[in-house]
Structure formats: C-alpha cells, structure tokens
C-alpha cells in the first residue's frame, strides 16, 4: 500500500507534464523504496556472509560481520528521520487521500521495531563472533602453524577474500539505487544499459579475483587489478556526473546518499587493490602449499577420529 501510494500516485502540476513519481526530480519520497531495498539486501548479504565465515573458518570475516551489523544498526536509526524528512518534503506528490502524517504514523513503529531487533542481534552476534573467533584461531594455528610470516600471509589472504565480498555488496547496492532513482528504460539512455551490463560483469571479475588468489595465478591477478582500476574510473565518472552535466537535476534529494555510497565503493575498491598487491607479492612463498597441507592434515585427523570411534563401538 505504501509503495503504491509513492509510485502510482498521478502527478498533475500546472504547466508540467505528467510523469512517473520516481522520475520526478522534486519527489523526495522516490528515494525511500530504494533505501529499504538496499537495507533488505544488506540483511540477506549479512546472512550469506555469516554462513561463509563459519564454512571457511575465516576470523577476519567474523570481525567484518560484527562491523557490518553495527553499520546496519546505525543505518536503521538514520532511516527513521530520513523517511519522515523525505515524506514531508514530497507531500505535494501524494494523493490527497494519503496524508503525509498517515504514512509517517504507519511506518514509524515498523522502523522502530527494526532498530530494536538489530540492536538485540548486535549483542548476540558480537558474543557469538567472539566465541567462534577463539575456536577458529586454534584451527587456523593447526592449519598454518606458528611461522609468523606464514600467519601474516594467511591474514592478508583472509582480508582479501572479505574485501571481495564487501566490494560486491557496495557495487550491487549502488547500482540498485542508481538504476531505480536516476535512470529510465529508454534506448536513448545508454547509461541505463551500461549499468545493467556492468552488474553481471562485476560478478565475473570477482570470481576471477578468488580464482587468482587461491591458485596463485599472477596473470589472473593482474587482470583483476586492472579491472578494479577500471572500476575506480567508473565510480569517479558516476560521482562527477552527479555534480556536472545536463543530468545533475536528476539527483536532487538523493545526491548525498548516492555520493556516500559511491565514495564507500571507491574506498573498498582502492583497499582491495592494495591488498591484492600484497597477496600478489606473497605468491610462491609457500602459503598455497601450507593451506593444502593443513586441510589434508585436518581431514586425516577427522578420519582417524572416526576410525577410533568405530573401534570403541
């Protein structure tokens, strides 16, 4: 009902052609569904991240989950005031049957519940992450050993894998907002189709990133780093386009949030490039062999334990 009120309300202003609400540059409320979609995507992403952290026994990823959930908590608080402000600034675009106050009164309790739930889960996630961090630390020690250089290389490897996943989240989140809020389905608008094409291409590039580091392939890692540099140019182009050119009026009311997301994308990409260079430098120094050896040792230990259980029975 809420989304119907925002998207399907006809816009009739004197001297202005009727257009869809989410394309009207003065309609602040067009940003609310996009914010909520990104928030839902963040929760699903965090669920996958938690599963992957337990599966891979990645201590760095456990820390990332705690930080990520804390960011979601802060975002949920921000969403309350942002929703009220956006609805208040776009009252002229709502059907007279739908008052701004009615929408605010309906949404505010739901948004407060989200804040409370995420706040409680933050405490639970932090405690669980601490317990798993200790457990994973011992297993990593058995896999990698006590060599400080090997531990340093393995830590860089873990950070690299986490950054790849964070890159995926920020890029998809930015693309969702950009497509929904500023672009139209018109053949005359090549930027729309460019953004659509870049989405699956990004997944392929990130797969190359994981393959390169796990197989210590210098060629594929070089291709990945070059691709990420292209990503830097892509996001810089997006940011500049928001402030300069004939389309800057499309970003009224949403430019601050899009700029924030694009900046976060740039920061994570640059951090990933720096960490990828560190991993590239570590190729051929024994980390790959040590991980394989440690995995086999863990598997043999599990098998031996199972055999002893059968004998005792």
UniProtKB/TrEMBL annotation:
<protein>
    <recommendedName>
        <fullName>DUF7789 domain-containing protein</fullName>
    </recommendedName>
</protein>
<dbReference type="GO" id="GO:0005794">
    <property type="term" value="C:Golgi apparatus"/>
</dbReference>
<keyword id="KW-0812">Transmembrane</keyword>
<keyword id="KW-0472">Membrane</keyword>
<dbReference type="InterPro" id="IPR056691">
    <property type="entry name" value="DUF7789"/>
</dbReference>
<feature type="transmembrane region" description="Helical">
    <location>
        <begin position="257"/>
        <end position="280"/>
    </location>
</feature>
<dbReference type="InterPro" id="IPR040410">
    <property type="entry name" value="UPF0658_Golgi"/>
</dbReference>
<dbReference type="Pfam" id="PF25044">
    <property type="entry name" value="DUF7789"/>
</dbReference>
<feature type="transmembrane region" description="Helical">
    <location>
        <begin position="159"/>
        <end position="180"/>
    </location>
</feature>
<keyword id="KW-1133">Transmembrane helix</keyword>
<feature type="transmembrane region" description="Helical">
    <location>
        <begin position="192"/>
        <end position="213"/>
    </location>
</feature>
<feature type="transmembrane region" description="Helical">
    <location>
        <begin position="58"/>
        <end position="78"/>
    </location>
</feature>
<feature type="transmembrane region" description="Helical">
    <location>
        <begin position="110"/>
        <end position="133"/>
    </location>
</feature>
<feature type="transmembrane region" description="Helical">
    <location>
        <begin position="220"/>
        <end position="237"/>
    </location>
</feature>
<feature type="domain" description="DUF7789">
    <location>
        <begin position="145"/>
        <end position="263"/>
    </location>
</feature>
<feature type="transmembrane region" description="Helical">
    <location>
        <begin position="32"/>
        <end position="51"/>
    </location>
</feature>
